[in-house]
From TrEMBL:
The lineage of its organism: Bacteria, Bacillati, Bacillota, Clostridia, Eubacteriales. InterPro entries: FAD-bd_oxidored_4_C, FAD-bd_PCMH, FAD-bd_PCMH-like_sf, FAD-bd_PCMH_sub1, FAD-bd_PCMH_sub2, FAD-linked_Oxase-like_C, FAD-linked_OxidoTrans_Type4, Oxid_FAD_bind_N. GO terms for molecular function: FAD binding; oxidoreductase activity. Its cofactor is FAD. Gene3D superfamilies: 3.30.465.10, 3.30.70.2190, 3.30.70.2740, Uridine Diphospho-n-acetylenolpyruvylglucosamine Reductase, domain 2, Vanillyl-alcohol Oxidase, Chain A, domain 4. This is FAD-binding protein.
Amino acid sequence: MSYKQMTAADIAALRELIGDDERVFAGEEIHEDYSHDELGGTVHYPDIVLRVLSAEEVAAVMRYASREHIPVTPRGAGTGLVGAAVAAEGGILLDMSLMNRFLELDEDNLTLTVEPGVLLMEIYAYVEEKGFFYPPDPGEKSATIGGNVSTNAGGMRAVKYGVTRDYVRGLEVVLPNGEIVTFGGKVVKNSSGYSMKDLIVGSEGTLGVVTKIILKLLPLPKRTVSLLVPFPSLRDAINTVPLIVRSKAAPTAVEFMEREVILDAEQYLGKKFPDHSADAYLILKFDGPSLEQIERDYEGVARLCLEQGALDVLISDTEERDESIWKARGAFLEAIRGSTDEMDEVDVVVPRGSINRMVAYIHALQSELGVRIKSFGHAGDGNLHAYILRDGREEDEWQRILHLAMEKIYAEANVLRGQVSGEHGIGYAKRPYLRESLEPQVLELMRGVKRAFDPENILNPHKVCGL
């Protein structure tokens, strides 16, 4: 589909529409950061960047873009890993980061209403100070909540609490034609027709622009305890995960890691990890209303791990110990990035009973293809992050080995009845693999939804299902 090439008249009209030159950048004024996301593999510059402040401004921009047939790409903090916030067709980039107000904390209905530019770490600080809990825990705490909604972000606590979609009660959305609509609200139950809210969550900015979010909150757990469990091998560690899940102990998080990723994190942070006795580790977290209740859960899991060959079970029940473990876990992505010149990521998810098979397959693939693949992930919910490292390869060889590795990993995930993405989305970079993994009828239904919302295909084109 062809789009209008933006002219000087379009730039001038949009500047006038925003009415504040400090919130408009065009041509050479556009910073390089706006051309890519956090992974950096997909690079496209928009023709203009508009830093919007309100739903009304977004609506005015969308009306103009619809009338002139100009593509529009919404963007938050740009921390995504699949090119979803990159302006693949140029045009208008909507920077939502200045829409960052807390609008209402409703203690009667246990909801928090915010604008999409509020950062995840700001939400945690705001609600926890008041005794509330927002459970979704994606690794990138500097991401915006709008970005989390757009990708249906998950994170480490998903094994117990679920993902972003489970905590979105309502959305204000600007449609591609500029109309402002509301989906959902503060109600706990809703059987009133199709769940339009849930279509928007995870749609990666292809169906509408989210301008207000109503989030569900929980009471803040009073106590948390973490376990660091060293194992003599990755196989021993990962084979224990299905047994932990089956034990019904309800850990908040079940993460796995290998020694080499820990060493990368140590170098990146300049701090030592609490233990170096093993080749692989599980990290588990438990939370609850009292230490006694948590102990009942984690003691059974500790015995199970030792029965499966764990070298030890280290209990972390102080803030200082916890920080040393989870700070290292949070640094894995940046640490791996710093160990090579370029990388790409597979965010594959399989039924959690099959996570051990998926991890073993990827581990063996390194030798088969002669490439380094560093992996870690949310073992408790079957979501694995595997990073394929370039390590100085020439471009042609890098592209060959990268695509071969991805094809093999996604094919194995398909055999295990998994999916292409557990939490990072499809965006621009992973579209071919989504097409290969879905039945044609399902892909056409997705495209039908896109056409219903955006018949002119101006909103974030070439993303997800690829119109």
